[in-house]
Amino acid sequence: MEKITNFFNTFLLLELVKGMALTGRHFFARKITVQFPEEKTPQSFRFRGLHAQRRYANGEERCIGCKLCEAVCPALAIHIEVAERADGTRRTTRYDIDLLKCIFCGFCEESCPVDAIVETRILEYHGEKRGDLYYTKPMLLALGDKHEAQIAKDRAADAKYR
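The chain above was modelled as a monomer; its predicted structure follows.
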């Protein structure tokens, strides 16, 4: 009896019919495709995009040169050089991130004790040459200055989960 059932299943192509029925159900369903450049999908406040460095309200950079972000980076994408100022505090003289190496894991952001390095919601960036994706301290500070309102809003929304 089993051989006869297998013969009819093979002869009538039941698997093919089941597959076509599944395709037919989804063929007429409502499409959820997003037309990307014109339409944007909503982003979480925890989205990890392009890096930026923040400043305090008085305009001084937040980074204290502790090098925790450099130490915790699994891709070794961050390079920091530190110098001591006349008042005895340390500040970075060089802070570079190689975005070709970066895996956007967010460890640098989590390890920073003063909230100096953050990952913004910016996902649309490109480089025509390898050097275009090597972000230096002035570039990171400029991004932080430009998007500080959105960064502060995202950090406030995430504060209750930290």
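The longest strand covers residues 90-98.
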